[in-house]
Design goal:
It is a single chain. By secondary structure, the protein is an alpha/beta fold. Strands 1, 2, 3, 4, 5, 6 and 7 form a seven-stranded mixed beta sheet that branches. A three-stranded parallel beta sheet has the order 8-10-9. Helix 4 packs across helix 6, helix 5 crosses helix 6 and helix 5 packs across helix 9. The chain is globular and about 55 Å long. About 7% of the residues have low confidence.
Length: 277
Amino acid sequence: MTPDLRIQQAVVFADARGVKVVARSEDFDTPEAERIAVLFGGRPPGVACPLAHFACPFGTKHVAVVRVEDRPGPGDVLGFRLLVLARDLYRHLGDPFAISDRYPADWTATGTLPYLAWPAEPLPERTLEQLDAVLKHGDTGLLLGATQAVVDGNRVLLQRSAPDEALARGLWQLLPDRSRADLWPASFAFSDELGLHLAILPAIPAAGPEPRPLTEEAVRDYPPSSYELNLQTAVESGDRAAVRRLLARGTVDDMIRLALYILAFALAVALLFRYVV
């Protein structure tokens, strides 16, 4: 079944006076956009946001892919460009950075904006060369540790004084397709109120709900496991088939669900034989 390819868009500005949606598509959920902009957090003193991206649920049936950047003007104005797409479409794509890159932001827009439309095609398949470049030019230990930690179901918070697009984009290149469809990243946010799976923050919260997110030290010391090791080995050895298989692997939830299906099937077969024989 073809997913809904329509994409709503909106432009939101936030400053000390509050949050305002200045342009939006027809039937756009303005309160939800305002809520997300508020949860991004208030600007800490002296912290700039030249360019960042994040993705998060938008209501129950949609996903927001958000580009954030400082805008000129009186006061500390922060601009949010939201692209809102159906969850089914996002599951087919799974890369908020690539989604945002396809549509340039128009910060001068006002009033009603047209719907955008994703072409009826998937994103290009990630290549071995792309993953090799990520590992060679990035912080390999941090990238691999964070990748495995996120795949294992942990939240990861990293402290930086400014957005780190390269780190967030690189980590998202390393994740399996299925994980990317279900997890939410931010290359920068002023707070952890959005509760994302990977977030780069100017300061790590001192306390929060359990289980506590992993910080950089814990991620660097994270025990190597099968996905991380197999991916690194496949990339370094140039094994394209292995890379393709690893990127297509299911999540832990998928594996648990499959195991439960197998168990249920085995019980049904056992009961059938018990009453037939």
